[in-house]
Predict the structure.
Amino acid sequence: MKKNLFIAFMMCALFFVGGTKAVAQEAAGLSEDLLLLANTVVDQNLSDPDAANKTFTKLYRKIRKNKEQLLAVGKFFKEKNVYACARICAEEAYKLAPQDIPVLMFNGEICMMRKDYGAAGQKFDEALFVDSTNIEALRLNARVYKYVNPHVALEMLERLKRVEPENASADKEIGDINYNLGESKAAVKAYNGYFKNTKPADLDIRSMENYTIALFSTKGYQKGRDVLKVVMPLTEKNLVFDRMNFFCAYENYELPEAAEALKYLTEKRYADSLYIYLDYAEAAGFMETQGDMVAAADFLAEGLKRDSSKLAGWKKLVELYQGNKNFTAAIPAYKTFLELNKANNRATDTLQLGVIYYNASQTDSVNKADHVKNGAEMFAAVERQAPKSYLGPLWRARILNVSNDPLDDVKGAYEVVLQRTEGNEKANAERVEAFAYLSFYYLKKDNEAESLRYAEEVLKIDPNHGMAKQIKAVLSK
């Protein structure tokens, strides 16, 4: 039974071993006869597992009562990736010396080989119970917990830093963990130490990517530029570095440098699928500073194709379209904004869409009738949503005023404006607009008395109103 169990261990090891023949070599702590047996196990492992089993049994009987020899043989098998043999040596050594730090560390490493991180952490914890300042135990424990329990890993690394304040490797790990936790400020602090105390050629590129992103997100634009000057030459091509180089130059208002750096996007130096919303959003912001609003809108629209969930992006795109007087394009963009923001929409948001329709009706003669119809519906909705506000009927009157003839629906809307602004001196300009239209309406309807009455209402607020003065001059004769 024991033999079969051991063969199962050995067969498991086959997945870790290559077919290269072992050669005689020196191994720390191994005598010549033990080294010969260990090499024979490795050599026979693929070609004759039964023979390898017998050889290992012979070796094991020689060393099973000797902690140092168990460790030496176990480490030999670990280096050769003969996991099952290494594990047996580790476990037997642990039985002999459960508080010996080298034994505990080796057992932890063997657990890591089989990805049993819980057991590995337990062994490293035991080593730290014996010696709380053991650097290697702290380092490996942090490595074990880095992705399993990052807060425990940080605790281990901070303990390591108290023992070795200048440990750049620990700074790197602290930076990586905090970056993955979204703690950008803490990540920057740790990466600062790692960057300062590590030769450029030895810097980890992935950590440096994290570093530059964290610097950008914490507004460390100048520091980001300084770091990028060091790390960009380390790789022939790196999208994150190119991206951060443009972002930091633009946000640091180094505009000529930003224009040059933007070529990573405009020249499509990377596969199109690798570009993200933020690439285009930052490019849009840069083009806006250059006064090229059309290009800014084009960039932002492209970015929103990458991520259509960006509420602020849609709102900004609408502003850019309106600034370019491209109201027809602004309509669907604002509708998307309203759909994304529907849980928070208010009457003012509906009003804004109506205003866009109004502006489109003034510039798009082909689709004018549709814009008028849709805009009037938006303003009517505002009237219902905000029954005390005069803005809905005011804009409804404006968008429906499409003729030099007197229009009843325009008249009715302005009458609602007057009702809702009664006694509101802050709305005097809107009241003048409503009175003036009513004066015009009745003049066209040949109702001179009403026309004169409304003209006089205008002049009470604005004595210099040209049309009202003319109407009064003509009708008072």
Q: What stands out?
A: The mean pLDDT is 88. DSSP finds 27 helices and no strands in the chain.
